[in-house]
Input
Amino acid sequence: MTTDSVHAAYQHQPGINPREEEILTESTRAFAKFGFRSTDVQVIADLLGIGKGTIYRAFPSKQALFLACAERAMTRLRDSIQRASVDISDPVERLKAAIRAYFEFFDENPELVELIIQERSEFKDRAKMTYFEHRDRSVQPWNELFATLASQGKVRSVEPEKITDFISQQLYGKLFTHYFTGQKGALAEDADEVIDFLFHGFMLEPDEN
Output
């Protein structure tokens, strides 16, 4: 079975029961701390006080368990962004809230950056990583938002997909630059600066020189 077919089995799973939630929470910590290859499922079972068979009945392999952890992480990211922005009527303020929520989520869950890194490293046969699968499934409302702003003359008349791709790349790059360089402080502390550059650039208009 390929990595993608293993992942597909857990990609759209129904509501996770409390036991599975406990397993995924503890497994996420273990994978982030020790890495996929060095994580022993028996150790996870011992930490939870359950038999290893209980884990394998829910997730039939360590690979399936890891990918379920990644899927849960990105679902939580999506839900966090939605909660922060869904009730904001002004489209510009909604986008700002979504960007801040993205940074705040990883400030609160830095271990999930490790899952993104490890998935790319350990499962190179995957056509698309979980992070980008979720990004592609969640982007349409933002494309529609930029189409609306363009029709109102508030953003340049370019393909909305190009705008969402650009913003997505900038946030992803900021996340990993912050993580790999060990920058002090929270990601969210830079949110307003990131928003300012994304929205206004850094060049002065000719009449401002």
